[in-house]
Amino acid sequence: MSAPALEARGLIRRFGGLAATDNVSFSLAAGARQALIGPNGAGKTTLINLLTGVLKPSEGAVLLEGQDITNLSSAARVRRGLARTFQINQLFPDLSPVESLGLAISERLGRGADFWRPAGKPEIVAEIEDLLQRFGLTDVYDQPTRALPYGKQRLLEIALALACRPRVLLLDEPAAGVPEEERHDILAALAQLPADVAILLIEHDMDLVFTFATRLSVLVAGRLLCEGTPEEIANDERVKAVYLGEDAHG
Amino acid sequence: MIDVARHLRRRERWRLIEFAFWLAIVAVIAAFPARAALINEMLVAGLFALSLDLILGLTGVVSLGHAAFFGLGAYTAAITAAAGWNDPLLGLVAAIVPAALVGLLTAPLLLRGADLTRLMVTMGVALMLGELANKNAWLTGGADGLNFAVAPLFGRFSLGSMGVGPRNAALFSLAVLFVLFAIARRLRNSPFGVSLEGLRENRLRAGALGVDTSRRIVAVYALSAAYAGVAGALSAETTQIVSLDLFDFHRSADVMLMLIIGGAGWLYGGVIGAAMFIGVRDVVSSATPEYWEFWIGLMLVVLVLAGRERLTARFRR
C-alpha cells in the first residue's frame, strides 16, 4: 500500500482563542475525486490555506505522497506537485492566457529564472496550445486576461493550476459566481481532468459535488463531522441537520 | 487559427519604429553638436530611468531611493579614476560591483510590508549612503568634491568638455544605453521577465504557480541597482564631476517622475521621459529659471489624467 497522495494529520490552527481548524485528519488517495463540504464559516478556506502553505498550522502535519511538507513554502509545495485554484480569481490581468500558462509551464520546467532565452520554446508552445484547447480558451488566447468573460477566467483559473502538472489539485469553489448557463463548461472541464491527479473539491454547489465526487468529507466548525460516499452523506441525519437543512432554508 | 508562438514572440522582434528611434538619437547628436552636453544628460538620465523601470515598471516594486545606486556608481568611477585606473569602460564595470552588492544586501528589506514601507526603506538607504559619503571625506572628498580625470575612450576619444569631447561623451552614453537597453529588452521577453510581470500582476498567484517571488525580486533589484550604478558612473565620466547631491532625495524623485512621464513598464518610457523632463527643464528654465518645475508639474498632471496609456498603447503590446 503506497502512501496517500495527500494526508493531513491532526491539523490545528488557532486564531487567538478560536480554533478555525480543530484536529482535522484526512487522506486523499492517488487519483481520488473527493469533495469537502460544509456550511459557511466551517473553516474550509483555512484548511486549504494550511494544506497549501499559505498558513502554518499551530499543530499537526501535512504530508504529500508520504513526505512531510509542513514546513515548506507555498511555491515549494507547488514544485513538489500540490497545486490549487482560488475561490476568487487570482489571475494576471495584463497578461494573456498564453503568457500566463507559459509562465506556469516555464516555472514547472525550472526555466523561470532564465533571463536570456525567449519565453516561447516549441515544447512550451505545444503544451500551451493543448491547455487552451482543453479549457476552451482558444478564442481568447491572446487577449489580456482582464478582458476575458468571467466564465473564461474561471476556466483559466483551473488551466493555470493544471499547467503545474500537479499530482494533487485543490479546487476552491471552481463554479463560484459562474452563471447557470455557463456551469456546464466548468463541469466539463472538471470531468476531463487527468484521472491520476488526486482532486479535493471545495464547493457549495451540491449538484456539482454530487456529479463530481465519489467521496465526501463534511467540515463543521473546524472539525470533520463525517466522511463517506455521496449516498451515505446525503442520508446522514447529522449532515442534514447542520448542512443540507441550512442549505434548504437558504 | 491561433498562433501561440507568434503571440509569445510578438515583442521580441525589433520593429522599424524602434530602429528609427535609436537612429534619430544619433542624428540629433550629429545635428546639434553645441547641445551635446544636454543630450548626454538626457541619455544618462534615460539609463537611470531604465534602471528604475526594471524594478518599478516591470516588477511593480516601488523605490524612492534609487539615487543611492546612482551616487554609488558615480563615486566608484570617480574614485577609481582618481586612483589612476581612469579608463572609462573600466570605470563602468567597476561601478557595477558596489551598486549590485548594496542592491543585493538591501533587497531583502523590500520583501515585507506595503508600498509605503518600501518607499521609506529605499529612501532611508539613500539617506544613509549619502551621509556615509559625506562622513568619509578621505575617500569621497566630502563637500569639496573629488578631483579626477577620465582617460580618452579607447585611448583616442576625449570625453572632456572641450572641442568634440561633449559629442564623444553623448555618443558613448548612447552606446552604453543602447547595449543595456537591448539586454533589458531581451530579459523582458524571457521566462524571467514574464515571471516578473506575473508577480507584479498578482504575487499570490505567481507563488501558487511555484515562482519563488522573493528570490526574483532580490535578483531584479540587484540588477536594477547595477544599471543605476552604471548610469552614475557614466554621469561622472562624461561630466567629470561628482558631488554629494547625487545621493539627494530629489534625484530619486526626479527619476521616478521621468519614468512616470514616459510610461512605466515598457522600457522606452524611461528614455523618453528623461528626454522630455530635461528638455522641458532646459527650455522653461531659460525663460523662468525659478519656476520651471511648475511646467513639469503641469505636464505630469496632464499626462496622468489624460491617460498616457492611450498614447503609447500601440507600441507597448
Keywords:
heterodimer, A: about 250 residues, alpha/beta, 6-stranded mixed beta sheet, 4-stranded antiparallel beta sheet, 10 strands, B: about 325 residues, mainly alpha
* Number of helical stretches of at least 4 residues of chain B: 15
| Assembly annotation | heterodimer
Q: Residue-averaged pLDDT of chain B, rounded?
A: 89
User: Could you name the ranges of chain A where pLDDT drops below 50 across 5 or more consecutive residues?
Assistant: none
Biggest pleated sheet of chain A: 6 strands, mixed
The CATH architecture category of chain A equals: 3-Layer(aba) Sandwich
What string, H for helix and E for strand, traces the elements of chain B in order?
A: HHHHHHHHHHHHHHH
Task: List the domain count of chain A as a whole number.
Answer: 1
Task: Using the CA coordinates, give the radius of gyration of chain B.
Answer: 19 Å
The chain pair forming the largest interface, with residue counts per chain, is: A-B, 47 and 33 residues
Global morphology of chain A: globular
Average pLDDT, all residues of chain A: 90
CATH fold topology of chain A: Rossmann fold
In whole angstroms, how far apart are the ends of chain B? 20 Å
User: What is the percent of helical residues of chain B?
Assistant: over 70%
Class of secondary structure makeup of chain B: mainly alpha
Give the percentage of residues in beta strands of chain B.
under 5%
What's the helix count of chain A? 9
Helix content of chain A: 25-40%
Query: What low-confidence regions of chain B span 5 or more consecutive residues with pLDDT below 50?
Result: none
